[in-house]
């Protein structure tokens, strides 16, 4: 049997050490093509941050398991934690919520256009719910001014983008004309050289 002191020592976190193998963490970091070298301190910081993140994720899943009067954390607990916790939203593609096989087939058979429209409708509805509803005339006037400013900003951005596109087109045309002129000069020089060679041969 393992003594209580031994089990407690395993649970305690030793300062300056990581529970994750640093060599493997370093190997995973180097899989990124933008990273060529990484020192020991940076590897240790990333490993410690990974430990804290894993601890946070598991605690969120365990709290949901406790609500269902369970001690075992299942996949659905982690998926619900990801879908209901704002800091974990970026994991929705990695840990998606579970669904029945029938629902999966139904989503697969739906056309992409309809799903895109549904997503747009839901996003617009969410924005409308979160939108500030003015209650006084002064607040209504302020909101109207903000909307007008946003419209003017968007129109100015469109004009700037259009002007930039026109400038790019003009530069491309100028480059093309310069290349044509250079080719014509090369052709003229070649013709002169050919004429000189012909005269030398005749002499």
UniProtKB/TrEMBL annotation:
Record GO terms (molecular function): protein heterodimerization activity
Protein name as it appears in the record: Histone-fold-containing protein
Record's GO cellular component terms: CHRAC
Organism per entry: Absidia repens
Gene3D superfamilies registered for this protein in UniProt: Histone, subunit A (1.10.20.10)
Residue ranges of every copy of the Transcription factor CBF/NF-Y/archaeal histone domain listed in the record: 20-82
InterPro entries from the UniProt entry: CBFA_NFYB_domain (IPR003958), Histone-fold (IPR009072), Transcr_DNA_Rep_Reg (IPR050568)
Compartment annotation: Nucleus
Regions of compositional bias (Acidic residues) in chain numbering: 166-203
């Amino acid at each position: 049997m393992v003594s209580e002191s031994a089990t407690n020592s395993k649970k305690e976190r030793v300062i300056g050490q990581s529970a994750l193998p640093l060599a493997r963490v370093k190997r995973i970091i180097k899989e990124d093509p933008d990273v060529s070298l990484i020192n020991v301190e940076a590897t240790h910081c990333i490993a410690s941050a990974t430990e804290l993140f894993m601890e946070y994720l598991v605690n969120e899943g365990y709290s949901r398991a406790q609500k269902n009067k369970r001690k075992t954390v299942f996949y659905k607990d982690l998926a619900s934690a990801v879908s209901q916790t704002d800091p974990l939203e970026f994991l929705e593609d990695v840990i998606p919520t579970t669904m029945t096989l029938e629902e999966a087939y139904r989503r697969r058979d739906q056309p992409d256009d309809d799903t895109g429209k549904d997503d747009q409708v839901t996003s617009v509805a969410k924005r409308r719910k979160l939108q500030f509803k003015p209650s006084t005339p002064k607040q209504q006037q302020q909101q109207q001014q903000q909307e007008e400013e946003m419209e003017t900003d968007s129109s100015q951005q469109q004009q700037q983008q259009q002007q930039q596109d026109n400038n790019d087109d003009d530069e491309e045309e100028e480059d093309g004309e310069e290349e044509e002129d250079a080719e014509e000069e090369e052709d003229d020089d070649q013709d002169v050289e050919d004429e000189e060679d012909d005269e030398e041969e005749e002499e």
